[in-house]
Amino acid sequence: MSKIVFVVPWVFACSYHAGSFRDPQRVWPGVGTTLGCVDVAVGNGADPEVAGPILAYGVGNRCDDRVVVDLTALRVIARGVDGGEAALVADDPRGELHPQPLAARWSGRIQIAYRGAGTAPIASICVDVGRIDRTIAPRERWICVAQERS
Amino acid sequence: MKAAAAVVGVALSSATALAHPHSCHEVSETLGHQVCSRFGAGWSGATLAWELGWTSQRMPLDAIDRDTVAGRATAAASVVDAQGLRLRSLYDLLDHFYVATELVAGRFAGPRLAVAAAPLARVMAPTDDTRGSMFGGVLAAGGRASLGPLVLRSELAFGSRFALFSDPHVPATLFGQGNVVLEARASASAWLSMHWSAGVVVATSLRERDDVAITVNLGLHALPFDGGR
């Protein structure tokens, strides 16, 4: 019985609150938007062991039903300081990326590294998240994240 | 008895699995570079829930014919009504399939014994009350479906149950009976919030006609709406 009492605060702390753009561990970095049942935030990621630009995604399910989050449907474009654009491809060496169910009132987080930026310095990376919720009609919704330049 | 011990073990391990997640040091949060998990781990999947409720159990007792220190105690086969608590741990493994472990404990008024040649014991008896205790454990598996704010379940349960009782006319003697439990059950619960539910479970034995139970319970769910209504 004491173990059940112990678990009570745990379960309440872990559910996702619509519009909060955070999970129990942290506030999601970057810019957030809402599409259907999905709150999504896109920001700069960091990983010293991984080369190339990295984006950090946080997704939250606002609804009482399970939703399918499709990160494979994102369009990602790098904008160079010279004004050029290049489409980026997710670096998925193990082939893990797939449309992923997200439980009701729950959240998930992932960093994705991208390839295809070339050698020119990147000013910003823009992501079209308009197809992330497979239950609603696709629409364009761009989120741009400025890249830090040393 | 082994079956009951196994059920206790599984029920406790379900809670400790949450309290003490396995220790793996994650070195990266980047797709393809994680060592402790894969993409999407923890986003959905199996869920846990616990239900604690008041239960009313009607159960048969076998006939008694036994020599005791007070004389020969006999009683015809009977049916008793027990009231107690029932704790269920539910594991929703798939969208519509779950397994459950369950512990139950209760009290009942024991059967009236006829005791031959026991005048001394009868004089010493403080009351005429006969009290008994019932406890048991089962494993269950079944299917579930959502209907708006309701969750409907049907399941089959297998386990064991023990009844212990004493009679003031037979001092220093404990009578015990064990039964195999094989039940068909149906339940309905309603969401009170995304983590809490209230429900009713009715059960009937597939072996004994007079073995039925009804439980009114309160449920606590680890994932909001068990992952989705």
What does this structure look like?
The complex is a heterodimer of chains A (150) and B (229). Chain A is mainly beta. Chain A is built from one helix and ten strands; from the N terminus they run αββββββββββ. Chain A has one helix at 2-14; strands spanning 31-35, 38-44, 54-61, 67-69, 75-80, 85-90, 100-102, 107-115, 122-128, 142-146. In chain A, the strands form two sheets. An eight-stranded antiparallel sheet of chain A has the order 1-2-3-8-6-5-9-10, with no helix packed on it. In chain A, strands 4-7 form a two-stranded antiparallel sheet. Chain A is globular and about 45 Å long. Residues 1-6 of chain A have low confidence and may be disordered. Chain B is mainly beta and 229 residues long. Chain B has an eight-stranded antiparallel barrel. A three-stranded antiparallel sheet of chain B has the order 2-3-6, with no helix packed on it. The model of chain B is unreliable at 1-20 (pLDDT under 50).
Summary?
The complex is a heterodimer of chains A (150) and B (229). Helix content of chain A is 9%, strand content 39%. Chain A has one helix at residues 2-14; strands at 31-35, 38-44, 54-61, 67-69, 75-80, 85-90, 100-102, 107-115, 122-128, 142-146.
- Oligomer status: heterodimer
Shape of chain A: globular
**Spatial extent as radius of gyration of chain A:** 17 Å
| Neighbour order of strands in the largest sheet of chain A | 1-2-3-8-6-5-9-10
Spatial sequence of strands, sheet with the most strands of chain B: 1-4-5-7-8-9-10-11
Number of helices of chain B: 2
Overall pLDDT score of chain A: 87
Provide the gyration radius of chain B in Å.
Answer: 23 Å
Strand content range of chain B:
over 45%
Given as residue ranges, the uncertain stretches of chain B (5+ residues, pLDDT < 50) are 1-20
Q: Determine the fraction of residues in helical runs of chain A and give it as a percent range.
A: under 10%
Structural class given helices, strands, pairing of chain B?
mainly beta
Spans of chain A of at least 5 consecutive residues whose pLDDT stays below 50 are 1-6
Termini of chain A, distance in Å? 55 Å
Beta-strand proportion of chain A? 35-45%
User: What distance lies between the first and last C-alpha atoms of chain B, to the nearest angstrom?
Assistant: 38 Å
